[in-house]
Every structure is written in C-alpha cells, then in structure tokens.
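sorry for the late reply, my laptop died twice this morning and i had to redo everyting from scratch. anyway the thing you sent over, i finally got around to it. pasting the sequence first so we're on the same page, its 1240 residues, then the predicted structure underneath. double check i copied it right bc i was rushing
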Amino acid sequence: MPENAMSSFLFKLLKGHKGKESTETQRTIYANARCGNKHENFKHAHNKIRTSKYTIISYLPINLYEQFTRLANAYFAILIILQCIPVISSLEPITTIIPLVIVLGITAVKDGLDDLNRHRSDRSVNNRIVEVLDPTNMTEENLLTKEKWMNIRTGDIIKIKQDESVTADVLLLSTSDPHHLAYIETAELDGETNLKVRNAIQATGNLMDPETDPDGLSCYKLAAFDGKILCEPPNNRLDHFVGTLSWRNDSGRQEKRFPLSNDNILLRGTTMRNVDWAFGVVIFAGPDTKLMQNAGKTYFKRTSVDNFLNRLVVYIGGGLIMLAVVSMVGHIIFEMYHGDHFQAFLPWEFIDECERKTNMTQDPCEKGIPELISGSLIFWSYIIVLNTLVPISLYVSVEIIRLGQSYFINWDRQMYSPLKDQCAEARKTTLNEELGQVQYIFSDKTGTLTQNIMQFKMCSISGLVYGNQSEPCDFDTFNPRWYDHEFTFNDNRLLAALSQKHQKEKEFFTLLALNHTVMPEYKDDGNIVYQAQSPDEGALVKAARCFGFVFRSRSPDTITIYDATQDQNIIFELLQILDFDNVRKRMSVIVRKIEPDGTKGKIMLYCKGADMTVMERLRETTDEDLDVIEQTKVHLDEFSAEGLRTLCLAYREIDEEWFDKWNQKFTDAACSIDNREEKLCASYEEIEQQMILLGATAVEDKLQEDVPATIANLGRAGIKLWVLTGDKLETAINIGYSCNLLTDDMLDVFIVDGESSLEVKRELLRNFETLCQKCHPDNDYGLVITGHALGHALEPDVEHDLLKVALKCKAVICCRVTPLQKAKVVQLVKRTQAAVTLAIGDGANDVSMIKEAHIGVGISGEEGTQAVLASDYSIAQFKYLERLLLVHGRWSYFRMCRFLDYFFYKNFAFTLIHFWFAFLCGFSAANVYDQWMITIYNVFFTSFPPLCLGLLDKDVNDKMCILNPSLYRLGQAQKLFNLRIFLYSVLRAVITSLILFFVPMCIFMEATGNEKWGMTDNDSDGMTFGRQAFAFLVATCLVVIVNLQVALDTAYWTLINHFFIWGSILLYFALHFFMYSNGVYALFPWMFPFVGVGRFVIDKPVFWLTLLLTIIIYVIPVLAFRLYKSITKPTDAEKIREQRYKQKRRKQKKPISYISRRGGSQRPGTQRPGSSYAFSHQRGFADLIMSGRMTSKRRRSRSTINHLARAGLSLPSSPKQTTVTFQEPQESDANHIRGERLVE
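ok and here's the structure:
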C-alpha cells in the first residue's frame, strides 16, 4: 500500500470511519430478524449517532495531527530536531521544547473539552428509551421490552407513543387509529409545525386491533410478522421513498408483494400526534436515516484570520531564509578576509586533510572551500538563532484570547432571555473574530424570524373592521366554557354583535368553524386540542371557538359545532370539500344544516382564500355589495400594512337540484382516468361562482421581538440577509414585508418560479438585464425564488446567472427549499465570494446550512435542539444576533487585530537585534541575549500585556457599536489587519530594533574607552564591561519599550491593563536578579552564566541614561506620527469619540427609521403579489375526510371515558355520525364548570 494511502487509511480508522466505502444500491430488511439484516456485502448501520470528533484512543494522535497541520507548529518541531545537532546550534533544544509543549498542551485541553460536550449531547440522545418488540419471548405476557435508542437495529419493530419522537426511519405497520392513520409533526425536518398524515398498508394495519386492545399490548401477530422489505438505499430525499413489502399474510402460502411509498414511512425526528400508539419496522437507523443524511458533513472551521496567519507564517519563513542567506554570505566574506585568525571554527578533519595534501603535492588547497562549508553550517545556525521570527506562542495566545472572548459572550446579560431562561453561548471558541467580518446571513424563517405562533388579530365583517380597539374582549362572561385563556382580541363590539345575533357576524364564524380540515383531539381531562394541518387553520378555528362557535367533531358525512349564542350543538351535513392547493389559493366546503327535528336546511358553500381569487368570483355587485367590497379592500390594505396574513371569506346559497347535477359532474371528474386534475379544477370553478363577500381575516404570524429593527441595523452594517425557508411563496413574501426585508420603496422584487432549467435561466437573464438598465447605486431590489426553480438554478450552467442577480439584490428569499438546498445555497456563496457567511436557524432542517456556513448560530425554539447542538453559537432570539455581531463580533475582530499587529511587532523587534548583532560578531551566529531571555521573553516579559489588549481593549463602547453600525464595515473589508498592516508592523519593528541596538552600542563604545569593540576594557573596579552587560542593557531597553508600545496602543484602560503592563517591566527586573544571583549560579552554573551582571550594570549612570535616551528617541516620533494621523486622517472611532467629547457626555440615541407599509395593492413593481394573502396549507386532507379514513373518533381507555363522563362530555359510538354532545351540568356544579378551563 502506498504511504499516502496508508496514512489516509490510518487517519480514517482513528476517526472511526470504515475502510471501505458503501456502494449500496438497494436495501433488504427482514422484519423481526436482526441476523438476516447482516448482508454479506453491506452491514446496516446501528442507531447510534456520533457528532463528536475524538475517541479515547484517537484523541491524542488526531489532535496532534491537526495541530501540526499548522505550519508554525510543524516548523518548531523541525527546529527542535535541528537544535539537537551541536555543530550548527548555539541554543539548547529546551528553549524551543518548553514553549512548544505548552502551546500543544493548552490547545489539546481546549479541544478535548469542546469534544467532551459533544460526547455528552450524543450520549443524551443515544440513551433515550423506546419500547421494542422481542419475538423471542413468546411465552411472556408482554412482548415489549425497553431498549436504548443506540441499540436499535434494522428489522426491529418498535412502538411509538403519542408525543414521542420517532427513533429511526420506520415503515408504519399499524396504529391505534381504526383506519391505520398516523399524524406526525415534522418541525425538526422541515420547520413546519402543521400536521401531516401517514398511513399503514391494509395488510399490516390489521396486525393490531385497537378495538379490543386500546393500549396496544397484544402484539402476538406483530411478533410473528416476517415480511421482507426491498427498498432504496439510504439517501437524503425527505419527500421520496420507493420500496416493496413481500409477505405471506393471512397464513397464505403464496407470498404477496405490496408497494410502499413515502406515505407509509415515519422519519426520524418527526413527532407522533393524535394517535395513542403506532408500530413500525426499522428500515434506516442512525447515520442512514434521512435526518442524518441531511445533516451534512461536519467541517473543521478555520477563520479568515487563521488562514491569513498561515500565509504569514510562510512569508515569515521566506524572510527568515533570506536573513539566513544574507548572514551566510556575510560569514563567507568575513571568513575569506579574516578567517585565518579563526581557523578553530572550521572542520578539523577537512583542515588536516588539506594540510597533508599541501605537504605531499605542494599544491595549496582550493580557495573558498573551507569558507563555503563553514557558511553552510552558519546558514542553519542562523535559522535557529532567528527562529523567533516565527512566533511559537502566537497560536496559544490566540486561543487564550478566543476563550476569554467566548466567556464574555456567555456572560453578557443583555443577551439573556428571561422568557426562555437562556443566555447566549459560544459553543466553539475558535470563530469569535469571524463574527466581526460577516457579509451574508442565511436565515430560516419559521421559529427564527417568527415565533411560529399564529394569532387571530383583526377581521372585517360586512364592511366593518373589528380588532382595532384598545379594550380587550370579556370572554369570561360571553363564552366561559370554551374560550382559550391565552386568546386575546381587542374589540367588545364584536361580542356585542354576536350576543345580539347579527346574522353576518354569525355567518362569519360559522364559516371559520366549518371550512377546514382540523381534527379535534380530546384529552384525558376533557379538553379539546385542535390538530391542524397548518397553523393558519388552527388560529382561525381557535378564534371561532373563543367567539362561541366551537368545532366539536367531524365524521365523513357530518360536522358538529357548538353555538354558544344559542347554547346548543348544530349538526351540518358535509356534502363536499373542495380542497386547497397553491394554484386555486382557496378552499371551500359545501354543507347543509340539520335541524333538531331532522329536517335539512339550505345547501351552503363557504369559501376562504386569497383576496384576488375570491373577489373575482363574487356575484354581480349591487350597491350594498359594492360598498362592502370597497370597504373590505381598504381593510385588507390596512391589515397588509401591519404585516398581517389575510384571507377573504365568501359564501353562496346553492339550489339543491343544481347541486345534484354538479355533484354528478364532480363525481365523474374524480373518477376520470384522463386529465383528472383539469376536470376537477373545472368543476371547482363552476361551483365557486356568484358568491357573496362576507369579510376578511387578519392573522398575525408573530415576528420575534425586534426583528425589523435588527434586520434594519444589520443592513446598515453592510450585511445582506438571505431567507431560506420551507414555507410557500406567499407566506415567505408576506414575512419579508413584515420584517422590512422587502419594502415598498424597492424598485422591483423579482420572482423566479420556472419549471425547467431553461425557464429559470431565461428569467434570471431577464431580471439581470432589468438590473443593469436601472443601475441603482443602492441595489434596492429583492429576489424571491421557489424551491423547484432553485433546484435548477443550482445546476452548474445556471448558478452563475443566479449569483449575478442575487448579489445585486438587497434581499433574497428562497421558499419551499429542502435542507440540502439550504446547504447548497450557502456553499455556492462560500465558493464564489470571498466573504464570511453566517447561517442561523432553530430546527433540524437548518442543521445542514449551519454546518456549511463559516459560522453557525442556533436558536433554541419550538423545533427542538438539533440546530443548537450543531451550531457554533446559540442564542435565545433573533434580536440577539445584532449584539452578537455588531458588539461582540466587532470587538473580537478589533481586539484580535490589535493583538496580532502588536505581537508581530514585538517579535520582529526582538529577533532583528540578533541580525544587527551579526555585523558586530562576524556573522558567527552568536546570541546577543542570554538563552533564558530567548526562552521566557514571550512567556513572561511580553505575554500578559498583549493578552489584555486582545481581551479588554475597545475603541468605542457597546452602545456606540449599535448606534453606528457602519463601524462594522471595517471588519468586512479586513482593514484592521491585512498584508499592508503586517508590513507596516514589520517596518516599525525594523526601526525599533535599529534604535534598540545601535543607540546602546554607540553609547557603550564611547563609554568603555577607545578599544575598537569596547568588549574588554575594565572599569575602575576592575570588572569587565563587555558583551553580557551590553546584552542586559539591550534586553532591558527592549522589554521597557515594547511594553510602552502596548500602553500606547491601548484605547481602553482598566486596572488589569495597568497591573500587567507595568508589572511585566517589574517582573523582568525581578526574574533577572533572581536567575543571575549567586545562589542560583551556585546550584546551576551551566544554566545561568550571567551571574552578577544586573547588579553590576544597574549601578552605572550610563545604564539609566542610555535607557532614557533610547525611550525618548523611540517614543517622540511615534507620538508625533499618531498625532498627525489623528488630525489629517481620523478613524471613524476617533470621530465618534470626539463627537461624544464635544457633546459633554450627553447620550443621544440615534433613532432607527423604518419604512411604513402601504398595503399590498400599493406595492410598486410588476412582479409583486397583489395582497398579503398567506395560507400555509397543503392539499390532501379533504380526500381522507370524505373517504371516512380521517375522523374525530378517538379510542380511549376506560379511565379516560369515565373522566369525560364526569366532566359532562360523552363520546358517541356510531362510526357513521361522530358527534360530541355537551350535557348541561347540574345547578350545583354550574359555577364550578363555568370557572374551569375545559379547552386547551
């Protein structure tokens, strides 16, 4: 095996990967047979998930591998090897080993703690308990055993109870529903909280009998189930599944095959609703589940600063080589002219051989050979001497700063949510400065921008608007039995109208109570909980209930509501449901009221839908109708201006004879084989005509707090927001306007919804031409693209056109997108733009884009914690993103840049003194400092002040960061630390090193006499005033000046800064006198040769005068240059500080202006929708209701039935007409019932 392949294999093995990649083309699962599922070629994955990086065995080797991928660490490992060669090293290896071990150790501990948290979260998921069927215990009364999630395998049959999460991807076998239905919530998959229906095939549905076994305990038939499932291999398509079930059911001899589709599958991450229990056989487990397949790969994220540092290390390494080459050349020249006096430095073997050759042949040795050999050795010697050009402590200092910044984020009380009792959390400590450079934010909508809570806010009934009053409704008096205490509506006029039995108002709420596909669920305490397919429907039905029109039950033929104004149940015969779809944008129900005496009333059609589709189907207008229509349009504009989601309501009375003829046409269309959809649409169109406008509803999809303000301020900071949502087009656009992402002042909003690649490409090119023609400097355009069109737009030949349009738009909204498409959009921007991206979401459907972006932010919301677990940072609400970026992000970037600028400066100033000393020592690789000074310079003398700079410094306070978001743009343009800033730091370091070396040298040469080098003269006391004293003076000047420099760089002073800056200078003197004391020298004479130097030099006036003169020569030009820059080219921060000073500390909060909404009909642009209609509903439930498979009949245990009876409720037993009757309580219990909350 080649070496590269072997190393790759070992790395994968240590990380827990298989050596052989799976190429599974189809999967075979044997129910109740784990052994049979161990295919000879493919071993099915177990249900254990793992998001951690290390194991106990792999931790050390993988972590060291990752750390040595940093060029600086690899460089110092090579340097240690070179220092072990005595002939070229003038430094002991310990001078590099100690700092390197400290760096590697601190980083390893930090990485280990981060991974430990991931292990804990994995363990909490893997150790959840589920009931699994054990077919081996046929003698036991209960065949169900409790098992941990991680021990589940393909082929296992598991039991899922109501409100439990599904353990793995399972094939639904049987449920407690008589029609084998299961209702699921897929919030963690697609962000939607509305219910979806799944069904078991009839053959397996009969394996359990909910009639005789309401608790689902008799599982003998399931234990004997031995079906074989042949299906597609694991993939990431959430809406697709193809398979077949082969099984000898009913004790038949011949094996039958049953087709399987996505309607028969429960995916991991979904939550069971509205059924007591369900059984399913596991087909995909653990990493093979569609949820994990969509989770995306976990990337090792590096910041742009990290990448730039790696490049700088390469540049510095090149500079180091150049300096070593110059030193080598200087050494060769010196040896050629003066080397005869220093023959001891040449290799003795070569000299002896050369002398013997000269004596034998009388030919002299070739000139230059000894010098070249000595020069090649000196080259490596200077590589070692100048090694501090590459800062070994840089990375560990950066990690310490990042860790401290992470704690500041965690401790920020202004990002604490009392409602959720949650603080912001930096889950990764390596990306803080990246928060200050974000240019693109990719956000989910549901649960991120909105609260995912629909609330009925206003309505228009027969030309009158309700809900715009300040006084809340008194539901306690009007409808004490059924109203929800969490529901509020501010207009008592509506209650008064209902109390007076105004016909239009009653018709309005009757429509809301009848026209829907909501399922009522009776809890054990007698409360009704509505399970709605969409949150919009749930809000409307809930509002009707609070206003006294309570939806109680449904059957295939009837709907029962309770009318509080008459205090009686009303039964309606359900004749037909005209289901909702995105083309029709409306839904209708045809009913007939059944009087108490059994007579049937008129046939009524109740319709709700988008204003445009309903308005154009109204009857010929009378004067009265025209007034209602005009008033309703005005009200719709007002609702739209407030960002509310609107629906229009209309009704029609239908002649019975005409309905019979139409119903026959409808039945024929429904049974048609050819063009069924077109014929059904034609029949819908025929009956949904001549309607009378009843009014309009206004539902608030509640935005999270301060979302518009946050988006507006982030926009001023130069950050573009892209919304990637699974919602439909109208809903996404409506929220875009609500949160001011889209505004009425935009020149145009382009909508791309092509059905093919060619159509999408044409639409994008047409939009791009429009952009180029208008050429607005602010790019005041919006782009909305559907998921289907986005799939084509992400193709290689179209993605460039998508980018051209999207990058010129101020806002981009992608709707109906899958989790994988979200990740692909983020990947496209990352790949093509040199910009930092941030993804934020709250559900499992956002995990893939959170992992793909440079920075992932998770919001702990209603959709679970998957997004938080996969994120780099977690916050409680979207509004905290503003502070996370504009304050902590900007501060982190500012501090890191100031730290790096200073860090390279002090290291270059320290190292270049060696280079200037080379001209004095004949390029002999002699050290100007003591080796302990080299070892601890970056550890003690100059480590704490720059850490304070990187942790505490700030140019403006947090309020100014929020009020002046333009300050954030410096990070986006990388203006605070780049190659120019780095070269400027190097130039400052060169000047500083020249001052630090030549000023003391000249003074010493003059002060020590006339000897040429001034290294051997004795003073009056007979002590040598030579190289060691010079080294001490230079080191002292260096430590003092670099600490003075960090003081000059500090913009925000604290006691901590003062302590560490001046304390570092004092520490230098204290350690120097300690290490070079007589006692330490007596113990370790070979380690501390500079004994007594400090005490000798510090007594000399020339020492203090030299130190003072060096400081003056350095500091005065620096102060003068900074004053000149602040006057001629002040920074934005300096301008703000000057402004605050002039205002005499008067804090004036800059008002944030928002663009007011004018309503849907006033929006400019040719492609904008004409209303704020939004209805997150999907087709399909009507067929289940009318077929009788989905009803409100609930099977309960005996205790539940008894509890309902005590509450005055009874459940009917007739499957044909399922109704719930309310029995009037006895007089003695009336007050108790009146004050008790019966409805959730």
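The first strand starts at residue 27 and ends at 30.
thats about all i looked at so far, will dig more tmrw
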